[in-house]
Amino acid sequence: MRKYLFYIFMALVCAACTLAGCRKNDGNESKGPNVEGVFWFEEKESDPGVMTGLYLKDGNMSYYAYAKSDDGAAILSEVTRKFVKKGNIVLTFPLGAYTIVKNEDGTSGTINSPLGKIEYSGLTENSVFFVSYDSEGNEPVRMQLYTLEYLGFPVTGIVE
């Protein structure tokens, strides 16, 4: 079960890179790129019209999904039992606590979570590269993640 959750987590992280560009504006944004407080999505769709992503903020890591189309919104509404419209981002699965160690260069670091370790590098305002390791230290996934805005997808709302 733990490996299954890890693979789901990585798929969502990839989807987050795809939808790169969507930031939650809570007034605590720091200057320069930051891996936290940004919705990171992969470019590919996990389901037709649905992109999955990752959000890290205040020590909590969560999977989110983006409704790229009306069909995607219908899928997400059914799965989450919440009203989702095209262009919405919706919480799909809280993953739990994490800790982060940022390197001095400001563009790389390590994220430790219950599912394993993620090393990130090449952080910019619009993209980041993740290499994830499971709890046994295996390296199952490498992915480039983006903000939704960078990928050209408008965000019309966030459904918690």
Average pLDDT, all residues: 85
Order of helices and strands: HEEEEHEEEEEEHE
Give a count of the beta strands, DSSP E runs of length 2 or more. Answer: 11
* Rg, nearest Å: 14 Å
Terminal Cα separation, in Å?
A: 25 Å
Helix content range: 10-25%
Strand order of the largest sheet: 1-2-3-4-5-11
Percent of residues in beta strands:
35-45%
Largest sheet: 6 strands, mixed
Number of helices: 3
Task: Draw up the topology in text.
Layout: H1 2-18, E1 22-23, E2 38-41, E3 50-57, E4 60-67, H2 70-80, E5 88-97, E6 99-102, E7 109-113, E8 116-121, E9 127-133, E10 141-146, H3 148-151, E11 157-159
Parallel strand pairs: 5-11
Antiparallel strand pairs: 1-2, 2-3, 3-4, 4-5, 6-7, 7-8, 8-9, 9-10
Descriptive notes:
The two termini are 25 Å apart. This protein is of the alpha+beta class and 160 residues long. The chain has one domain (2-159). Helices cover 20% and strands 39% of the residues. The chain has three helices and eleven strands.
What would you say about this model in short?
Helices cover 20% and strands 39% of the residues. It is of the alpha+beta class and 160 residues long.
What features would you highlight for this structure?
five-stranded antiparallel sheet; alpha+beta; six-stranded mixed sheet; 160 residues; Lipoprotein; signal
